[in-house]
């Protein structure tokens, strides 16, 4: 029996083509998170995908005029009100796409505070995989979101990788990232332990430097 209030996962896809590997990656991450949430929480999970290619003109007009269209306002509200967020961009010039950045430029820098986020990207070669760490993770750190530890990069050759759970292929990384997002949405640590208010928010969790020095002297 599912609870009455569904959990909401929103995936933002900045893919430009149709069909798009970026959209495909967003869908698979959302499915992995929904599967884990439904299994652990026995609640309905709503998935919404925001296709930025359909909002490109609205985003440009908002940047110039300062006023969002109704369709763009609906997309922004969906992102800011989601229980969990999946953000996927194609790689252009060794970074996220301009459309992806322009959309998140329109979101208030405090609106995603504490929101669990999976970051992911697609590209033609594995050489661009570090875009997740040098571009996307700092972006969402600025927006005060909580990015899960596993980020997912899918190069062209990754789509043919094995789904063997003992490998580090794309299917394995998708399942792991989806599971981490589910744990974060449920207020748990990635390991599955319950979060402790205060300690998990950084309060009293850091050992003072003086105490660290004292411990070293005792050793």
Features:
single chain, 219 residues, alpha/beta, Rossmann fold, seven-stranded mixed β-sheet, 7 helices, 21% strand, globular
Q: CATH homologous superfamily name?
A: Flavodoxin domain
The proportion of strand residues reads 15-25%
Q: Pick out the low-confidence regions.
A: 163-167, 191-209
Largest sheet: 7 strands, mixed
Distance between the termini: 55 Å
Shape: globular
What does this structure look like?
This is FMN reductase. Strands 1, 2, 3, 4, 5, 6 and 7 form a seven-stranded mixed β-sheet that branches. The chain has seven helices and seven strands. Helix 1 packs across helix 6. It is of the alpha/beta class and 219 residues long. It is globular and about 45 Å long. The longest helix is centred in the N-terminal third of the chain and has 21 residues. The chain has a single domain, classed as Rossmann fold, CATH 3.40.50. Strand 1, helix 1 and strand 2 form a beta-alpha-beta unit.
Give the topology.
Elements: E1 3-13, H1 21-41, E2 43-51, H2 56-65, H3 70-81, E3 84-92, E4 95-96, H4 98-105, E5 116-123, H5 131-142, E6 146-147, E7 152-155, H6 170-185, H7 209-218
Parallel strand pairs: 1-2, 1-3, 3-5, 5-6, 5-7
Antiparallel strand pairs: 3-4
Q: Would you kindly provide a brief summary of this structure?
A:
With 219 residues, the chain is of the alpha/beta class. The chain contains 7 helices and 7 strands.
